[in-house]
Amino acid sequence: MENNEIKPKGNHKRNEVIYRIAIVVLGLLVLLLTILWVTCRQSLNEMTMEREIAAQRSTELQSELNLVLDEYQMVKLEYDSVLVDKDSVIEANAREIQNLINRQADYNRIRRQLNMLREITQNYVLEIDSLYKENQVLKAMNVQMREEIEIAQRRASELTVDKMLLEWKVEEASALRAYEIEVTPFRLRGRGDREDETDRAGRVEQIRVCFKIGENPIVEAGDYNAYMRIVDPFGQVLQPGDVTGYNIVLEGDTLKYSVRDSFYYENQATHTCITWHRVEEFEAGVYTISLFTDDSLLGETFLELR
User: Fold this and answer.
1) Considering the chain, what percentage of its residues have pLDDT values greater than 90?
2) Which of these, 238, 240, 226, lies nearest to 272 by C-alpha position?
3) What would the pLDDT profile of 241-288 be if each residue is shown by its tens digit?
4) How far is CA 77 from CA 5, 84, 135, 246, in A?
5) What are phi and psi of 197, to 5 degrees?
6) CATH architecture of 178-305
7) What is the pLDDT of residue 2?
C-alpha cells in the first residue's frame, strides 16, 4: 500500500518540471520572435528611409541637371547659338548623367559627372560670351563702314548731280536765246509795197516774226541759221509745196520747219526777222510758232487768227 502512494508524487514532479521547461522555452521563443520582429521592423524602417533619401538625392540631382541644361539653353538662345557644335558634347554628358540618375547609381559618381558637366557648360558660356562681344564689335564696325559707304555714295551722287547741273548750265549759257518775240500777220496792198496788219485768217498773206538774240560772250561769233516752224490749229506743220529738205535734226529728233533764214552774231544783242509767205489760205485758230538754230531752241510764241 505504501509503494502505490509514492508513484503519483514522482509523476507530478516530473510533469511540473516539464511544464516549467516548456514555459521557459515558450518564453524564449516569444522573446526571440519579439527581437526578430523589432529587428525586421527597424531594418524595414531603415530601408524605407534609405529609399526616401535616395529618391530625394535623385530629385536633387535631377533638378541640378535640369538647371545646368536650362542655363546653357538660355545662353545659347541669347547668343544666337554661336557654339552649336558644342551641343553634342553637352548632350552626351547629360544623357549619361540621366541614365545614372534613373538607375540610382552611386551618388558620388553622379555628383562628379554633374560637376564636370557644369564646368563644361560654364566654359562654353564664357567662350560664347567672348565670341558674342567680338561679334558685336564687328557688327558695330560693319554698321559704321556701311554708313561711311552710304555717305561716300551720297557724296558721289551729289557730285554727279552737281556735274550734270554745271554741264547743263554751261550748255544753257552757251546757247542762243530769243526774247521780245513779235508776230505780225498782214496782207499786202497795192503793188505789194503796203502792208496792212490783220488777224482775219482769210486775209492774212504773210506772217513776220521778229525777235532779239540776247548778248552772250560765251557763244562763238559768226553766221547762224534761223528756222521758223509754224504749226496750224490741226497740228500740221506749214511748209512750201516742195518739202524736200525742210527737216533739221535737233538733239536727236528730226523736226520739220516752215522757212529758213540766217543772221550774223557778234556776241551782242541782235535783231532779226523771218517771214512766212502764204501757200494756202489760213484757217481760223491758234498757231504755234517755234524758232530754232542748228543747235538749240531759240524761243516759242503763239498766234491766233479769227
Assistant:
1) 24
2) 226
3) 766 778 888 878 888 999 999 999 988 889 999 999 998 899 999 999
4) 107, 10, 15, 79
5) -70, 135
6) Sandwich (2.60)
7) 45
